[in-house]
Amino acid sequence: MYIGGLMGCKGDAYQATEVLSVEHAKQFHSWAAELFEQAGADFLFAGIMPALTEAVGMAQAMAETSLPYIISFMVSSSGHLIDGNSIDHAIRVIDNSTRQRPLCYMANCVHPRVLHQALNNPVNQTLLVRERFCGIQSNSSPLSSAELDNAIELHCSDSNELAQDIMGLRSVINQIKIVGGCCGTDNKHLEKIANAIVRLT
């Protein structure tokens, strides 16, 4: 078992509000990264990052520690972060802006069908994305973040369908190394996902 230190953006990840500049993000997030390192975390995880500038600053703050880290984006079906930057561009910029690159990149709080569309955008069909993008923590609903924002009811999809959709990401990602559940998922969804992975081995 590995214990990760979970960190996130300052503002609303669904709306990309209160986005920090690179410099301010590094300063703002450094204290949490340092505390997780002191507490003995095995790795750091930046979840649902909607904007590139703050993701760069977050990565730089994490890179100042001795811990490996992962950057996870909030993406739309268009293939872009909420701020409009493509997944490929975001990976390229972060990799070139840190002295210690992230272990990999992923997406969370998004359904695999949405991510599949995002990665199928020609702008993201690059060797860089295929090699550096490694996984998903999936919502159970295929609705967009805009549709889910402030929803008053829980939206869920069938657990078997969700597992199949996650496995379908293998056509656009070289290796799915990290899978898991996010909003709307429960033990049934995770069990089906685990069973689907076992069948591949």
From TrEMBL:
Mind listing the UniProt keywords for this protein, alphabetically? Metal-binding, Methyltransferase, Transferase, Zinc
Question: Which InterPro entries would you find in this protein's record?
Answer: HCY_dom, HCY_dom_sf
Superkingdom per UniProt: Bacteria
- Report domain Hcy-binding positions: 1-197
Q: Which SUPFAM superfamilies match?
A: Homocysteine S-methyltransferase (SSF82282)
The coenzyme or cofactor needed here is:
Zn(2+)
State the Gene Ontology BP annotations: methylation
Q: State a single Pfam family of this protein.
A: S-methyl_trans
Q: What is this protein called?
A: Homocysteine methyltransferase
